[in-house]
Amino acid sequence: MKWYVAGRAGDTVKSGRKASSASGELLRDAAVNMHSALQQLVDDSCRRAGKAPWILRDAQGYELVFKAHCSRKGDKGAAAGPHVHVSFTRDDYLRGCELLLASSDPLDARTLSLTTYQAATVSRGDDVRPRHLAELSWRFLGSVGPSQCFAITVMQPPEGGKTLSTRPAYKGIIRAQLPSMCPLGALFRWLATRFAIEGESLPTPGHPQWQSFLLWPGRAGKEMTPSNHAELMKKLYKLLGVAPSKVTHELRVFAAQAMYEMGVSLEVIQRIGHWLLDSFGTSYIVPGFTPEALLALGFWPGAAQKDFSGYWAERFHVGVPLELIYGLFPGLKELEAEAAAAQQAAAAGPRSGRVAPEAAAVARLLRMGAVMVVQDALELAERFPDNPIHKLLMGYASFRDLLFSYKNGKRLGKFAGQRPLTVKEQIQQSVQQMQEQCMAAFTSAAELNWRGFEKLLRELTRGTTAAPAAADATAAGAAAAADTTAAGAAAAAAAAAAAAGDAAAEAGAGTLPDVVVQNLQAMAAGELPPSPEQQQRIQEQLQQLELEEQEAQQQDVQHHDDCFGSAASLAAAAAGQGQLLCTPSGAVHLLHEVAGRTAATLTPGGHHFTAFMTGREDQLPFVQQQQQPLQQQLLQQQSDERPPGLSDAEWHMVVQLRQQQQRPPGLSDEEWQLLLQTRQARRQAQARQQQQQQQGRQFGSSLLQGMGTVEPLGEIALPHITAQGAAAAALGAAGARTATTAGAGGSVPIDGLLEVLLDMRQLITQGRQGCSCAGMQQQQQQCEDHGMGEAGGAGEVLQQQHQKQQQQQQQQKQPSKKGVKPFPSLSVHTSMEALAHWYAVQPHHSEVAAGRTIKQMEDDGSHSWRAGGSKQRWSEYMVLLTALEEKQEQLVDAQRRLGRRGVQVDMVAAAQKLDEERLALPNPNPKSSKPMSICQFREHLTAQAHAAAAARLAAEEAEAAGAEQQ
C-alpha cells in the first residue's frame, strides 16, 4: 500500500496518489485499482526478465486487507504484531523439555507438565490452569496403534474457559514419540513428585478436596494466576533465548503450526483447537479424539497420511513391577482399597454410587500413569540422573535390573518382533504368502502326480495280457468273498478294482487318464496301501517337521525369555516367580504368566498383545486363553450328548455323576483328578488330530477335483504315445506285447509305455520348479491371470504398471535426434497457420510410424514428448494454442447460428482467421514496417486477457458495492 501511494523510481506504473486523501490515507476504491496496478507491474517485470506471465486472480484479498488495516479514523494501516514467532521451533521446544528434565528442582516438573500439556491439547492458558485430578479418565481408540491405543481424557466443564462457555470440552492425549516430550509422562512424573517426594497425600474419595484437587496449583495451593503462569513461561523463554510476541498463548500457536507443518488438514486443526465451533463439532463428535491430530501432537510419523503403524516404541512393551508403582504413588494402595469398598457399598446410597466409579477410574489411571513414568525412565534415567523421580527409581534394585534387561534387549534387537508392519511391508508380506501358498499347492500336485505314476507302474506290471488280468479280477473277487475282515475287504476291493481296470484297459473300455484318476482317488481315500518308497518318504517328512517344530519351540522360549523387559534379568526371574507386574493397561499379572506367552500371540494384533496393551483379558489366565478353542469344541461334543430339557446346572450334575460312576475303586481324589486331566488331554489331542485330518482331506479333495479335469499324467504321456514313429523306435522288440488304449491317438504296447514313462520321470517331477509340468500348464496360466503365478504374486495390474514405468524410463533415456528439440522457439513459426499445421497436422518425429500429432499426444495425456524442453517456452505456446481453440469454438458457433449444424472447423481454418486479425493490428514498434510477429501477437493476447480480467473485477466490485448500499 505504501508503494501504491508513493510509487518507486523506475516503475512504469503510475502511483495511486489520486486514490489517497491529503493526509496520505487510502480511499475506499484503492483496493480495486491496486489490483490492476500490481498486475501491470508484474507483467512489466516478467517481460524484462523473460519469464512467463503471472496472473493475479484474487482481488478480494486486497479489499480484506483494506478493511482490516485501513479506516477513516486516521489509522495508517499499521499491522498488529504476529502470533507466530519464527524463533520458537520444534527444536527449541525439545531443548526446553530437556532443560526442565535435567533440573533437580521439583517445581520444574510442574513447568514441564504444564508446558507439554498445553502444547498437546492446543489449549489456551485459562483452559489449562483450572484442571483437576477428578476430571481425568481414559478412553480406548481403535484406530491408533497396531491394535488399540488408550488416550488420557481431560474433561473441561462448562464455564471453564473462553473457547467453550456452554458445553463441556474433552481433550485427548496420547504418548509422544520422544519420552522427553511426552505430556503424559510429564504429567504423572509431576504427580509422583508431589506424592512421593514432597509428601503430599492423595485425596480421599467423597471428601471435598477430591473435586478441588488441582493438577497445577499456584501459590498457597490455590489456582494458578495468569501472572504466575506468565512468569514460569518467561523463565523458560529466557533459558531458550527466544522472545515470542505471546507468552502463555505461544504454546497454542506452536502446536497449531506444528500440526500444519506435519500435513494435518486445516479443518482438523481448527476443530481440535476449537477455532471452528458448530453444532456438529459440539454435539455429535469429540474433536479432541481425532487420531490424525493426536498422532501429530505426539510427533509420530505418518500422522497426516493416516498411517497409524508408526505408533510403536520398545518401552511400551515393558511390564513394570508393582513395587515401583506403589513407590511412585504411596497412597495408591489405600485409594484402590477405598474404591473397592465404595463399589461394594454402591447399593447402600446414592452418594456411594457417585464416588465409586470416579475413585476406581482415578486409581486405575494413576496405576497406568506410574507404568508410563517407569517406562519413560528406562530411556531417560541415565541421560538425566539429577531428576528427582529418576533418583527415586534408581534406588530400587528391581528398577536397576529392569533397566539392565531393557538395554540389553534393545541392543540385541529383541523387540523387533513386536514392531508393527508398515503398509508397504504388509503388502509385501501378503504377496509373499500368496506366492508360497501357490508354490506349495503346485509342489503337492507334482508329488501327487508322482505317487499316481508309481501306482500306475505297479498296476501295469501286475499282468501283461487280458487273460491274466481277468483271472486276477476273478481271484480278487473270490478273496473278497472269503475275507470277512474290514482290512481284508478293503484290500480285496482295491485289488479287484485295480485288476478290473487293467482288464478294461486291455479290452479298450477304459483310457489311461481314467485309470490314473481312479487310482489317485483311491489313494486319497486311503483304499490303496502305499509303497515302501512312499512310506519312507512320509517318515522322512514327519521327522523333518518334528525337527522344525522343536527348533521353533526352542527359539520361542529363548525369544520370550529375553524379549520382554517385564522378566527383568535372569536373576530377578529366578528369584521372583511370585512377582507381580503391571502392564500399560493397568492390569496386574504374575511374572510367569507374562513370560510364558507364545510367539503367535505376541505379534501385533494377537489376542495377548491386545490384552497386554488394553487390559481386556476378561480375567482369564493365559493358559486358559490358549486352550479356549479346544474347550469350546469339547463343550460342543458334550452338548451333542446332552438330553433335551435339562438346564445347565442339571446337566453339570449329570456329568459329575457320570464321572463318579466311572471312577475306579481305590483311587484317591488327587489320583482321580489326575486321571481326568489325562483323559481330557487325550480327548483334546484327538480333537486336534481330527481337525488336521479334516483339513487335509478337504485340501486333497479340492486338489483331486482340479486334477481330474486336467488329467495331468495323461496329458504328459499323450504326446509321446501318439507319435507312432518315435514310439516304435523306442519300443523295439516289445512292440508285440499287450497294448493299452490311449484315447483318440491309437494304442501302444504296455511295456513300451513303461519305458517311455520311466524316461519321462524328470519331466514329471519338474512340477516342483514353478509348475513346468505339462499337465499343470492350464492351472498355471489361470493362476498367473489372477496374479499368483511366477510373477511373485504382484498380479496383472502391478505387471502392467511395471511395464508402463519401464517404457516411460526407456523413452526418457532414448537420446533425441541431433539438432531436434521437443519444440522450437516460438519465433520459428512465421504465422498462426504454420503453428497450427505444426501442432495439429504434422506428425511428431517420435510418432511418424503411428502418424500421431502433438495435439493427439496432448489430448491423450502423453506429455513425455516434452522431456528436455523449457516450461517457460511451452507456456508461451499455450497462450496461442488457447486462442486457437477459442477461435475454433467461435467459428463453430457462428456456423450453428446460421443453421449449419454438424459443421466442423479445423484448427488451420481458425489459425487463418487469427492471422487476418494479426495482420490488421499495428506493429507495437513504430519504427518497424513489418507486420506484427507471432511473439508480439502473444503479448497482445496476454494484455487483452489482463484488461478483460481487470474490467471484470471492477464490474464485480461495483456490483458488490451497490449490493452493500442497498
TrEMBL record:
Gene Ontology MF term list: DNA binding
Keyword Magnesium recorded: no
The organism's place on the tree of life at top rank: Eukaryota
UniProt entry keywords in alphabetical sequence: Coiled coil
Residue ranges, compositional bias (Low complexity): 626-638, 799-814
Segments forming domain Ndc10: 120-391
Region (Disordered): 626-646, 784-824
InterPro entries tied to this protein: DNA_brk_join_enz (IPR011010), Ndc10_dom2_sf (IPR038279), NDC10_II (IPR031872)
Coiled-coil ranges from the UniProt annotation: 531-558
Protein name, entry field: Ndc10 domain-containing protein
Organism listed in the record: Tetradesmus obliquus
